[in-house]
Design brief:
By secondary structure, the protein is of the alpha+beta class. Helix content is 38%, strand content 14%. It has 24 helices and 20 strands. Belongs to the ROX family.
């Protein structure tokens, strides 16, 4: 079993602390069709077939096109083009795009080029000159400086689109130089799988159910090589759904430079996910929302996107607004479409905010919490026999995540930390335990304006003391905003917190955030250096390789011991451990005051992880053959022993306490280990997040059980 678990741990480590992963209007009158006057005409190639997609159609504001259900019933092979859904975009989206492009043209383009030149980020491309890192820095710098002053991110934001030719014109680059078109293709993915030990997930495709994922491959034997995922594994998975590589920039050197550019442009730790979808999928991702604001870069093939208005949080308060349509939560497409069709006609009533095809080189921005769904069907050239190359038609896009909420850089998490620091029970929202999801429960029953403000992220640039708009993101500015929002949520709770604690909390979050930022920078720089080393090795061995690229890409290449030691799996681990240390430090800091006030003589001992009480369902690491593996407590025995279930499903009964490592200090509400909790029952069930109706239902269930 040890070898099996060790192999699986290699896979699990890839996703360690990838906390999101992959799992992202102006009034008008009647439906109006307009041509896109912003489209540049500098190159006629911008309007012709880009790999597999036909020219962009006219933009339609608040289209009254029939729903997908009625389309399916009316469609036939003879008139597919006539039955296609037209593009939809709002005037607000167009206005934002114009502002972003203008900022790129006047300032951000120069900054991006200077930045990429300083770090040598766009100098390693062999086949064609490309300004990918420079372009990403420019786009994100423009987003930060344009949207931040108007609260244009998160639930207050709005989706918008930047077309390839518009971007290239604004960047003022020569025609033969590319930004994002063709930057990462299936050929690059083949090479990445040859060079490294990578893992991926495959997403479900049922648009009536929540988006779920499962592994693309599993180890076929006990050896290292038998545990590696191959390109063929990816191709097989593509037949069933979208293949997702989470936090890919930390592992793949070619993507590390763009990740570094996004990190420095936004002053925020970020990650990039890679999504690969075969041509012809009616649903490549069911409707869902994401915790991050995302920037989607289409690099190969085409994909059709629909972005909708966020549903009201009061409809399903026990659902995470930033994880709707994921796992067991359903956000069916037909519900979003029905709401669209039932709208009265005004712009504020319309549910569908944007629908379009992304071609290679196009960029799409989707704010956190906005439902979106994708497909790889319905293009203008669906029956075009001239485009039959699977490599061209496969959709490849990169999603860069602005990970503010992942690192608790938002006002909801800041309020929670401040209350914990002050040792104040949160009677308004009931977020009492550290393991509680802060984005569900009574928080979603707040008035819309307060709810939106509370879930708002800190300004981009908060972690940078020398930003252009430092006044908008200073500690004092963010502290003032936190106090305003906390007072609006619940005045009594707000008045119970000492004045100094609000600022202390913001200062601590900034300190921890800057550490996260430095760790991410170091991680991406290490990946860049590894890429240069690999390039030098390939150059030295090029004359020895007689296989064609295709033959070599479809088989596993034996790695040398030195190459194995340099695999990203091992390279990134030390950075993930540093991240874990920072998170633990923040957690301890938040509990310091409560420890001093309630039981100063019971401060956490150095070995608290091995001696403090544990309960059923606690997430732990348990010893198995001298190594610790992720596990969950399944039973607390009367003789002081514990039954655990490991991450791979195996169980171990009767383990001693010193063989189990607790990952988080026990809640200050319960340090006895018997599950007693003022907010719950004898089983340690926290009811503080339940609505009155849910609490009543739960009590009835307890009475029946007893």
């Amino acid at each position: 079993m040890t070898s099996k678990v060790a192999l699986l741990l290699l896979t699990v480590s890839f996703f360690f602390l990838t906390l999101t992963a992959a799992f992202s209007t102006t009034t008008t009158t009647t439906s109006t069709t307009i041509t896109n006057t912003n489209t540049k005409t500098t190159s006629s190639s911008a309007f012709i077939n880009q790999q597999s997609c036909q020219p962009r159609r006219s933009v339609v504001l608040f289209s009254t096109a029939p729903s997908s259900t009625s389309e399916a019933a009316a469609s036939s092979s003879k008139n597919k083009n006539q039955q296609q859904r037209p593009d939809v975009i709002t005037l607000k989206s167009n206005n934002i795009s114009e502002q972003i492009l203008n900022r790129i043209r006047t300032d951000s383009s120069k900054l991006g080029k200077e930045y990429a030149e300083t770090f040598g980020l766009d100098e390693d491309e062999e086949e064609v000159e490309q300004y990918t890192s420079a372009g990403l820095y420019a786009v994100l710098d423009s987003i930060k400086t344009t949207l931040q002053p108007i609260d244009g991110l998160g639930l207050s934001g709005h989706p918008f689109l930047l077309r390839k030719n518009e971007l290239e014109s604004s960047m003022m680059i020569e025609e033969e130089i590319l930004l994002f078109d063709g930057f990462y293709t299936m050929k690059d993915l083949k090479q990445a799988l040859i060079d490294d030990f990578l893992d991926a997930s495959r997403g479900s495709t049922d648009n009536r159910k929540g988006w779920s994922i499962q592994p693309v491959s599993t180890p076929t034997g006990d050896s290292f090589e038998e545990a590696r995922m191959t390109y063929d594994d990816v191709l097989i998975a593509l037949e069933k759904g979208t293949v997702i590589f989470n936090a890919f920039g930390a592992h793949v050197p070619k993507l590390a430079g763009p990740c570094l550019a996004v990190t420095d442009a936004t002053d925020t730790p970020n990650a990039v996910n890679l999504y690969v979808t075969s041509y012809g999928k009616k649903t490549s991702a069911p409707p869902h929302t994401d915790k991050q604001d995302v920037i989607v870069i289409q690099t190969n093939g085409c994909k059709r996107w629909r972005v909708y208005k966020p549903p009201s949080s009061t409809i399903k308060p026990m659902s995470d607004v930033f994880a709707r349509g994921k796992g067991i939560d359903n956000l069916p497409l037909h519900v979003l479409e029905e709401e669209e069709n039932n709208a009265n006609g005004g712009s504020d009533d319309k549910n569908l905010l944007l629908e379009t095809e992304l071609n290679p080189g196009d960029v799409l921005f989707i704010p956190a919490g906005f439902p979106h769904t994708t497909s790889t069907t319905g293009f203008n050239n669906e029956d075009d026999d001239d485009n039959d190359s699977d490599g061209d038609k496969t959709s490849v896009h990169l999603t860069f995540n602005i990970d503010t909420r992942v690192w608790e850089l938002d006002y909801l998490n800041a309020r929670r930390l401040a209350l914990r620091r002050a040792n104040i029970i949160d009677k308004a929202l009931g977020q009492s335990r550290d393991e509680d999801n802060v984005y569900i429960g009574r928080v979603n029953e707040l008035p819309k304006e307060i709810h939106t403000d509370l879930l708002k992220e800190f300004p981009l640039g908060f972690l940078n003391d020398n930003g252009e708009d430092a006044s908008l993101s200073s500690v004092d500015t963010v502290t003032t905003e936190l106090k305003r929002i906390a007072h609006a949520v619940d005045e009594d709770t707000f008045n119970s917190v000492e004045e100094s604690i609000w600022k202390e909390t913001i200062e601590k979050l900034k300190q921890e955030g800057q550490e996260y930022l430095d760790i991410h920078r170091d991680m991406y720089i290490a990946a860049i250096e590894e890429g240069r080393t690999r390039k030098a090795e390939r150059t030295m061995k090029a004359h020895l390789n007689s296989d064609t690229d295709d033959n070599q890409s479809n088989k596993k290449v034996q790695l040398t011991p030195d190459q194995i030691q340099r695999l990203s799996l091992f390279r990134v681990q030390k950075y993930y451990e540093k991240i874990k240390t920072v998170k633990t430090d923040l957690l301890k800091w938040s509990y310091e005051a409560s420890d001093k006030k309630t039981a100063p003589q019971q401060a956490l001992p150095d070995n608290w992880a091995y001696v403090m009480p544990i309960r059923v369902n606690d997430e732990v690491e348990a010893d198995l053959g001298g190594a610790f593996f992720p596990a969950t407590i399944t039973k607390v025995l009367t003789n002081g022993l514990y039954d655990v279930k490991f991450f791979d499903g195996d169980v171990e009964d009767g383990m001693e306490r010193n063989l189990i490592k607790l990952l988080k200090p026990p809640s200050t509400a319960d340090t006895t280990g018997n599950g007693d909790n003022n907010d719950g029952d004898d089983d340690g069930i926290d009811t503080s997040n339940m609505t009155p109706k849910q609490l009543k239902r739960w009590k009835k269930a307890q009475q029946k059980k007893n």
